[in-house]
Amino acid sequence: MRCIEVKDLTKTFTTKVKQEGFKQSLKSMIKPEYATVEAVSNISFTVDEGEIMAFIGPNGAGKSTTIKMLTGILHPTDGSISVLGLDPAKKRRQLAAQIGTVFGQKSQLWFHLPPTDSFRLLADIYEVPKDEYTSRLNYLVEMFDIGDLLKTPVRKLSLGQRVRCEIAASLLHQPKILFLDEPTIGLDVVVKQKIRELILHINKEYNTTIFLTSHDAGDIEKICKRAMIIDHGKIVLDESVKKLKYDYLNMKIISARFFEKQKPVSMDGVKIIKSTDYAASLHVDTEKVSINEVISMISKDGNLADITINDPPMEEIILDIFKKTAAGAP
Amino acid sequence: MFMYTEAKKILRLFTRYFKLNLSSQMEYRASFLVQVFGMAINNATFIFFWWLAFGVAGEYIAGYTFKDIMFLWAVTSSAFGLAHILFYNVHRISNLIITGELDTFLLQPVPVLPNILGAGTSVSAWGDLVYGVVLLAIVWGLSAKVWIIFVLAVMLGAVIFTCVNILAHTLTFYIGNAEMIASTVFEFMISFSIYPDKIFSGIVRILIYSLLPAAFISHIPLRLVKDFNIGTLAIWLAFAIGFLVLSFVFFYRGLRKYESGNLIVTRM
Q1: Which of the residues A37, B45, B183, B223 has the least number of beta carbons within 10 Å of its own beta carbon?
Q2: Which tens digit of pLDDT belongs to each residue from A112-136?
Q3: Would you tell me how many other CB atoms lie within 10 Å of the CB of residue B46?
Q4: Residue B125 CB-density burial (10 A; 0-12 exposed, 13-18 middle, 19+ buried)
Q5: Mean of all residue pLDDT scores within chain A
Q6: What kind of architecture, by CATH, is found in domain A2-10+44-245?
Q7: Residues A212-237: pLDDT tens digits?
Q8: Residues of chain A with pLDDT under 70
Q9: What would be the CATH architecture of the domain defined by A250-311?
Q10: Does B267 contact A109 at a Cβ distance shorter than 8 Å?
Q11: Which of A13, A101, A103 is the closest to B259 by Cβ?
């Protein structure tokens, strides 16, 4: 079942334009000039129930604007949106009751109070019945391991602890869709991993649809099944993460260790990432040269001790896509 | 029916916020008490000033007795206090719009404006509220008529104070940061409420009966105390309700222009 349907969505902002200097400042006061900026330009996509979707793009690509339109914060300039069968701009409150949001840069928790007070307030706001609230809270406390944090004022929590509480807060009313905007921003590796596990768990257990924006390629690689890439307000790619990894780039990373000293490899389609006397990391473009050829080349002296072949990290793939779109060839 | 459930929801929200705000402030107990008593002492110095002024001028200043002026003070102070205990967050509207923090409120399934208004309190406002009550009791005694009008005036006054702020802050949607405008407007409101209205003439007089309705905070209640008239009472009530509707409509129209933002902030 479709739970998000977006058609020809466009959002433009009007901004004042001013040239440099005092004279121009005066001029712009008397006769301001305006320019329209298209933050999101004619995008269409759908998300199915239970899907985990990554929404990726550089700063200013239109990610946040899109997510804000999907949640009813901003009104579209043009096009149509249907989230859980509702138009977010018209049915903001009805929709809000059925979705959860974690915006990494904004907190739902009261800074000076312990999370449990904020939870209680949110349960009221979302009209969660009392007994349901108790059992739900118990479940979330156990899953997110936040029992010890409930009574500590939020200002005294670490960022990782706070994010866990934020996500728990957004799940109190059992949302059908969870919007996560940069949920792992600023977190260390261990906490990031934990958060990712939790997101996956929620998706599996309740079939909650996850719509996630992130800068962190790891987030996408580890949790998402599908990735949509947006740049300059346009969707430049909409693929399964698997396909993205295996098909989009014909790149492999070969790491090898040697028994004896070796000479740096030099082949068309092979870039050296790192090379020492006894080890090398190579970036292989399989369109230009086959893996087979590269392996034969480096093992021809018979001194190969160990070899691993990996896909390139997600980060690199995304970077490459951006480079290609910037060059005008998606 | 819809209106009734809506009202009930909003009331529940306010109650919850009220408790939460109070406990949030009580986290800092010493500061809480200092602020409450500090405000009461601060206000008391102004009585002393008026007492001196009447000592020099005689029984009347601009047609008002010392007792009349104290009524203006009591109502204004308590209305100001009530408004800030319940709806202190009104002062943050401009800031919420500019920083994009309004998003948090828009993401919740409750009416936006009441949700914003209830989400903050001022501690010292308790001092203002209590101060007005004590002042009235000392100067006017325990006349039932005076107290009924006083209580009504405090409630309507709190609404009018809040609505003036809503109107001023809503300008931020249209012209950018209106925080300065709002605080100036609010200071005007307070000043006009605590002086005899006869000293204002011309445009200012029109203003205090319209867009900056200070007259409806304290002067009209005083008139009712001195000379009760059902017509005046009706106009007073109608004005307060009309003003409330106006400020809400203006805010929701402005909200359509909201552009959101991405500053990194915490909710205080």
Answers
A1: B45
A2: 889 999 999 999 899 999 999 999 9
A3: 13
A4: buried
A5: 86
A6: 3-Layer(aba) Sandwich (3.40)
A7: 988 777 788 788 889 898 888 999 88
A8: 247-249, 301-302, 326-330
A9: 2-Layer Sandwich (3.30)
A10: yes
A11: A13
